[in-house]
């Protein structure tokens, strides 16, 4: 019985390591204001997920952290199913919540600059192919409309 458990564990770990999936490329497409209150601002974040693999990526959700100008602006998670075709891409929308104070700090930096936000987005696609989490990271600049 013990040998069967050890064998099962080895096969399961081997399956995870042989997935051989490359990290997806995730980029920020858009940030739009949503219904907000005085103390909490809500935004709809649109991400493009590109799959460099020859197999489709199926994930049960994702988690993420968004930094703007080197400071954490928000973090979140979604249980929205994500399906990215092989060698293709898809766009997803996420809800982002931030406090007035943190948003004003970032906005103040933008007003003094050229209207661009330097961002870094990090996270994981969760439950990829029902087995493992797949990390992603992206950085770039987003120009305020």
Overall shape: elongated
Quote the distance from N terminus to C terminus. Answer: 63 Å
Radius of gyration: 18 Å
Question: What is the CATH architecture descriptor?
Answer: Sandwich
Task: Give a quick account of the main beta sheet: strands, pairing sense, barrel closure.
Answer: 4 strands, antiparallel
- Enumerate the spans where pLDDT stays under 50 for 5 or more consecutive residues: 13-18
Number of helices: 2
Main structural class: alpha+beta
The oligomerization state is single chain
Proportion of residues in β-strands? over 45%
Instruction: Identify the strand order in the major beta sheet.
Output: 5-4-8-9
For the record, the CATH class is Mainly Beta
Can you give the helix content as a percent range? 10-25%
Count every beta strand, where a strand is a DSSP E run of 2 or more residues: 9
Return the string of H and E elements: HEEEEEEEHEE
Overall structural domain count: 1
């Amino acid at each position: 019985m013990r040998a069967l458990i050890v064998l099962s564990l080895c096969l399961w770990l081997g399956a995870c390591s042989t997935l051989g999936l490359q990290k997806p490329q995730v980029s920020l497409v858009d940030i739009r204001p949503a219904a907000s209150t005085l103390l909490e601002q809500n935004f709809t974040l649109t991400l493009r997920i590109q799959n460099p693999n020859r197999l489709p990526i199926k994930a049960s959700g994702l988690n993420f952290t968004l930094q703007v100008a080197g400071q954490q602006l928000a973090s979140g998670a979604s249980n929205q199913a994500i399906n990215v075709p092989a060698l293709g891409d898809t766009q997803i929308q996420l809800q982002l919540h931030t406090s007035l104070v943190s948003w004003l700090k970032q906005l103040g930096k933008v007003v003094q600059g050229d209207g661009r936000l330097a961002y870094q987005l990090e996270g994981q696609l969760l439950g990829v192919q029902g087995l493992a989490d797949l990390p992603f990271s992206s950085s770039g600049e987003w120009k305020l409309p």
